[in-house]
């Protein structure tokens, strides 16, 4: 039997010292973890905001550059006799001139501070990217069919502009028709698409003509329909809204107006100061977007930022970034 006084162990003092050292080590680990988590959260929010901002501006830029796209025909808002506009209530269900009238309405116009968070709204009318060449068999005036080369994306209920790009025929006033497509049929053997139209063409379009798909697009800021009340950039084509980018808190737009007919902007105005007669003289657009991170508590303190010339300190701790770009309307600027 061993004597008790010959046994050895850890004293209470040694246990306390070990606990203190463990607490220091554990505190260091927690501090490193917390710092890494905060860094990751900030970096992730920054990447999210920057990617969304770039995507929003890229998409808007593509649409804005096509404002007033009329292909190869000369367009004069004061004399549109060279355009046969066949879009009416009889050919378009739910006809709305703001959505379907490409001749009488402005190619670009906007409203000022009437959206969510006092944001602006902008509407663009014109062609979509790309065009298709008309090919044989050619159909005469007074018929409701036309054939274009390739497998076209144009389908039923789309709206098109058919333009003559060759020499003018002095016996025909219209150089272009605006039509609604009722159906399209692709022929893989001939690699062409036959479009059936809702009305008759004004003339016989041949291989000097091309077809452009038309669009009316409106950009605005609204709360997301997902129910999370996240401010979102909405792209509406012919009144059908699509959530494009979440986290777009504000959008302010300035319009570069050419006041001396040299096709370059002399001064930038907001929509309220462009004036009813000056939309035709808008040759450039300056867009300012304010984007916020999805998550709160990303920054240590409320982030003070300057947007549209105003310094703001928000109540939350979301990360925010301002994106600005100036877009030349290629169908108007420098065309003289």
Short précis:
The protein has 336 residues and is α+β, with helices and mostly antiparallel strands. It contains three helices and 17 strands. It has one domain (48-328).
Task: Describe the protein's topology.
Blueprint: H1 12-65, E1 83-85, H2 97-100, E2 108-111, E3 121-127, E4 132-133, E5 145-149, E6 159-164, E7 176-187, E8 192-197, E9 209-223, E10 231-237, E11 240-246, E12 248-257, E13 267-269, H3 271-274, E14 282-292, E15 305-307, E16 310-312, E17 320-328
Parallel strand pairs: 1-7
Antiparallel strand pairs: 2-3, 3-9, 4-9, 5-8, 6-7, 6-9, 7-8, 9-10, 10-11, 12-13, 12-14, 14-17, 15-16
Task: Provide structural commentary.
The protein is built from three helices and 17 strands. With 336 residues, it is an alpha+beta fold. It has one domain (48-328). A hairpin with a 4-residue loop joins strand 7 (176-187) and strand 8 (192-197). The radius of gyration is 30 Å and the shape is elongated. The N and C termini lie far apart (113 Å).
Descriptive labels:
about 325 residues; eleven-stranded mixed β-sheet; alpha+beta
Helix content: 10-25%
Low-confidence sequence ranges: none
Q: Give the overall silhouette.
A: elongated
Q: Label the structural class.
A: alpha+beta
Rg of Cα set: 30 Å
Total count of helical runs of at least 4 residues: 3
Q: How much strand?
A: 25-35%
* Structural domains: how many: 1
Distance between the termini: 113 Å
Tally of strands: 17
Question: Tell me about the biggest sheet?
Answer: 11 strands, mixed
Assembly state = single chain
Q: From N to C, what is the helix and strand string? A: HEHEEEEEEEEEEEEHEEEE
Q: Estimate the mean pLDDT confidence.
A: 90
